[in-house]
Amino acid sequence: MALSRRDFLSRSAAAAAAAPALGARPPAGSPAGPTDRIGPEPAPLRLRVNGVEHEVEAESRTTLLEVLRWQLGLTGSKEVCDRGTCGACTVLIDGRPALACMTLAVDAAGAEITTVEGLGSPESPGRVQAAFIANDALQCGFCTPGFVVATEAALRCNPRAGVEELQRAVAGNQCRCGSLARIRDAHRVLSGGEPAPVPPGNRAACLEPDRPRVDAPEKVCGAARYSADRARPGMLFARHVLCPFGRARLVSADLDAARRLPGVVEVELGVGEWFEYSGAPAGHVCAESPAALRDAIAALRIDWEFEPVETDWLALHRQQHGPFPPREEDLASFRGADRAAAALARAEVVVEAVYRTQVQVHTPLEPHGAMVDPTEQPVKCWVTTQGTFTCVEAMQRGLELDPEDFEVRCDHVGGGFGSKFGAGREGLLAAQLAHRHGRPVRVFNDRENEMLDTGNRPGSLQWYRVGATREGKLLGGFVRTVGITGIGGGGGVTTPFLYDFGALARSHDDLRTPHGAPRPFRAPGRPQGVFGIEVLMDELAERLGLDPVEVRRRNETSEVRRRMLAEGARLIGWDRRRPSGSQRGRLRRGLGCAGGDWGNGKGRCEVRLTAKPDGTIHIFSGMQDIGTGERTVLIDLAAAALELPRERFVLHLASSKYPYGPASGGSTTARLTAPAVRDACAKLKPHLPAREEVTVEGSFNDDYWGRGGSEAVQFVDLVVDAETGVVRIEKIVALQACGQTVNRKTAENQIHGGVIQGIGYALFEDRVTDPQLGFMVNAGLERYLFPGPLDVPEIVPVLWAESDGLGVRSLGEPCTVPTAGAIANAVANAIGAPIRELPITPERVLAALEGRA
User: Fold this and answer.
1) Which of 87, 528, 664, 780 keeps 20 to 30 A from 376, CA to CA?
2) Residues 624-666: pLDDT tens digits?
């Protein structure tokens, strides 16, 4: 387990405080002795922050980040990793960048401290902030202040810094949404250049071709308040204690030592109980401050009795479902087996292969949690969630109140990617403790807890035996898929998909492991399914000596994707593609492609518009914006429908007291918002200009549904180092349909983000667990890898305009579906050997090369 500097100081002191407990213990039920204090008393401290002198109180172990956030209310600096690895807490100390989570407050005394709030305001942003706003260099915005401050530091050090120097300056900053390509555009502008050119046709495809997102100034200047930033007088801090092992009994814990500590309010643990997976909740601790909370957890000195667990997927499959791949006698149980067998008998070529994808962890930078304040009326529940209305049931249960007596809010959300539907056990605990103690309570995961049991994209095993004609036309065959689902279910792998596979017989099961359950993750089931499908298609083309693009065209089920394949091949320079395995030098270039798609179902959405005599139009919607740009979509849709400038609109968002809005999942919000906003605008327009206040209600209206789809095709150009196995992606062309695009910059940014997350899935991300004890060995941002600024290639987002001007369609999901498959095929083209397992690490590339040799 990695320790931060503060943890080391805290735990050393905790051990000293708990030492008396090693001797004779008082009998059970005897009165508690005097409280044990850890460390010295808080002492007065003067800090100069953003040009203002502040008197604060801090212990010698208190970090600068804690003082900034909890005493001074400067929440632009974010707590994400608490290990100095993410850069979200970057501040300037005497003009130089420093990580506030790794800087003790006492060490900053006498220095000039500058936070993101000191660089500018939403009304008057600084130079770096203005460049980030103009270039839409953000999505959820949780990481953005750290990038802004690190960039400012580089420019203060060298006012003539070029884009490469600025990119290196933020190389230690992490962004999970994938706004890194836009940050590079901001750096280009700051270094005197121009942002990446807009692909031809993108502007014409959009209702709003050039203006940035409406909430960019707040986020870039550190003024946006996330649920994790909310603080109230008298607030308590609480956290779950989790079992780290795959199976273990909590033998003992020093509850008395923890409860004696000053500031500790409540300690509950399941001593003597068995826990059946890594990440299982074993209890919780509640305290008056973050320091008291950490002290109490350290003082517990938990003793676990753990047992070995089976974590090997193939061994578990043998135990639960029999051998993998299936035996010949097992195939008769597949649905449609007779037709599949007949198709294989007619086939002129048969491809049989096993593909494997890893478990991917969501890792939003704002961890799961909530702050519940029962002192307000109605009770305020600040939850980091993808669904305002999906949290109501848990809050009702925890607070023991009717929904009209509390309000769920989530003004800004620091990422979710499918893992934040509902309030979660964190929100439920916050509500229960707030109800019990009558005080505001904050429950947010630390980074290790966040990565153990808040969801994941399940891993997969995929076996294909598929036949085709010599011309590459698929005839059918067998496919067996397995989802690696921890203690839960929902490990479906999307196949067959994209292509007409003919008579395909399929079998699927979920495989239980001693780990946390999956949750929906951006395009659930499809990235892993498309990886297997698209690598299979390239293997088929290779066997037949045919062009992989042509094999796809012959089997495509979508005319839109057929046209995309032709255009994407032109844009990437497919005619430069060399035969697979024909290169012999150290650096070998590869080209690959893959397709994707996503559904576009209808659903419920309600919007309220109020026109006021001062000319403003107020929009009310209970839905949330998790960084996709929903605020901007609402305003730009209404502005276009009412033919009014943006500045006339005032948005009220993300409250359970507002009209119902869908959860941000399955790419639903924009496509369901558009018909509701247009319906409300049609009702309001006859009343404009309003001489008195006028309110109308809009809802999903089929008249404004229109047509359009969410087809996707991506092409990749990369270079493989045949000596080290390192893959360097140089360019990705992402062709993406989304019906009528609303705002160009946010739409292109969504494509960038989907592609960058796809790069992480293809090359870096992997939940690694101990093979015997089952605990996650890389549960931290210093060990769990995803792309950083220097890993991002040129990305060309092509907004595919096939719509009637009405149909707004899914965008967030489909743009991440093809990426891993396209990258795998490009690597295979470069080295002449198929890539059948993710992530594509240097070791696996070298193994594939060795196997080919």
Assistant:
1) 664
2) 999 999 999 999 999 999 999 999 999 999 999 999 999 999 9
Q: Which residues pair with 587 in a beta bridge?
A: 721
Mean residue pLDDT of the chain comes to 95
Q: Cα torsion at 239, 241, 246, 247 (round to 10°)?
A: -150
Residue-level pLDDT at 805: 79
Classified by CATH at the fold level, domain 368-444 comes out as: Aldehyde Oxidoreductase; domain 4 (3.30.365)
| CA nearest neighbour of 21 among 254, 317, 326 | 254
Half-sphere exposure of 742 (CA within 13 A, CB side): 32
300: nearest Cα among 266, 259, 263, 270:
259
Torsion of CA 807, 811, 812, 815, to 10 degrees: 170
Edge-to-edge strand list for the sheet holding 441-444: 264-269, 280-287, 236-243, 441-444, 369-373, 379-383, 406-409
pLDDT in tens, 34-54: 344 445 688 999 999 999 999
pLDDT tier at 802 (50, 70, 90 boundaries)? confident
Residue type for position 40: P
**455 φ/ψ angles, rounded to the nearest 5 degrees:** 105, 170
Fold that domain 456-599+708-852 belongs to in CATH: Aldehyde Oxidoreductase; domain 4 (3.30.365)
Q: Would you say domain 606-704 falls under CATH 3.30.365.10?
A: yes
In sequence order, what are the beta bridge partners of 712?
596, 736
> Which pair of tokens denotes residue 145?
């202040």
Instruction: Give the pLDDT score at 39.
Output: 57
DSSP string for 310-326: ---HHHHHHHHT--SSP
Say whether the peptide bond before residue 325 is cis (omega within 30 degrees of 0): yes
> Under CATH, what is the fold of the domain 40-197?
Ubiquitin-like (UB roll) (3.10.20)
Nearest to residue 418, comparing CAs of 709, 603, 667?
667
- SS3 string, 383-446, reads ECCCCHHHHHHHHHHHHCCCHHHEEEECCCCCCCCCCCCCCHHHHHHHHHHHHHHCCCEEEECC
- Give 554's DSSP letter: H
pLDDT in tens, 695-745: 999 999 999 999 999 999 999 999 999 999 999 999 999 999 999 999 999
Is beta strand 43-49 parallel, antiparallel or unpaired with respect to 112-114? Answer: parallel
Tell me the C-alpha distance between 147 and 116, whole Å: 10
User: What token pair was written down for 449?
Assistant: 């807890």
Residues of the chain with CATH 3.30.365.10: 368-444, 456-599+708-852, 606-704
SS3 538: helix
C-alpha 289/C-alpha 311 separation (Å) is 38
> What are the helix (H) ranges across 42-118?
64-66
Tell me the per-residue pLDDT of 364-398, one tens digit each, with 9 for 90 and over: 999 999 999 999 999 999 999 999 999 999 999 99
- Look at residues 519, 449, 450, 442 and name the one whose alpha carbon lies nearest to residue 227: 442
Q: Is residue 15's pLDDT more than 70?
A: no
Total-model pTM = 0.95
Give the CA angle between residues 734, 736, 738 to the nearest 5°: 160
